[in-house]
Structures are given as structure tokens and as C-alpha cells.
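anyone seen this seq b4? input:
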Amino acid sequence: MDSAKKRRVKSAISWILSIGLIGAITGGALLSDAKKPVDTGTRVVNGTVSLGTIEQTLRGGGKLADHYDFKMSLPSGVKLESYLVEEGQVVESDEAVAVVDQVSLNQTILSVYQAVSDITGEIETLLSEENLEDLKSSVTGEVKEIYVTEGSDIR
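predicted toks r here
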């Protein structure tokens, strides 16, 4: 296999692993929120049906609120410097609600880059071994394209 194909194989594997790692981090954060039980506030009331006249009575109390709530979560390690809104304040779409600490954000990004770099190094080590029989993925992902044919040397 020529060097251009080797680079494409390494590049494709690196991209697949990078996307898989980022997806795993994002998916983990979303799944942790999805596992929390949600209280819908509904109650089941039992009663009997009988003939009679229809009456209208209006009673109520409480507060008026939007139909839906939106919860956001940050990746672990990212910290907020300050909030730009107060509790109960109405915000518009695309309006900033908080200021992110740039140092913690950059550290989190660097840790993701380091993890991708480590995985890429492991792949390169596997590809350079003399007695390589099977190439196995260390993460789950979708194979988009295969650049080699059966029986060819992947190095």
C-alpha cells in the first residue's frame, strides 16, 4: 500500500475515533440527565358517573408558567463565572444566560484533545507491530469507508 493510502487509513481511523470519543462524552452527559425520573405533576382521581346537571365552577391557585422546561448541563470540569439572568426571569432564544470560565473550558478541551491523541498513538503503535493479525477498534462507531482489500498489507 502506498504512503498516501496509509495516511488516508490513519486519518479515517483518527476521525472515526475522534467523533466516537466526542459522541461518548456528549452521550454520557445526556444519558445522565435522561435517567433522572421526571415528575409530571399529574394525579389519578377515581369517581363514579351518575346522571345530573352540568355545572361550571372555576377554582384555582398557583402561578402561570411556560408549558415546557429546558434544562442544560455542562461537561464535568467546565465552570461558570457568573449568571447573566436571575431565577424566574424570561429569556429569549439565543440570549446569553451565563459566562463560562475560559480556563476550565480550555482545560476540558485540552483533555479531550489529549484523549484523542492517546488513542491515535495507540492506533499507530498497533499498525507498526510486525505480527499484527487483527485490527480491533477500541471504541464503537460506524465504518464509513474501507481503503484496503482482502489479503492486502495494511501497513
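Strands lie at 80-83, 98-100. Helices lie at 3-34, 102-128. kinda curious what u guys think
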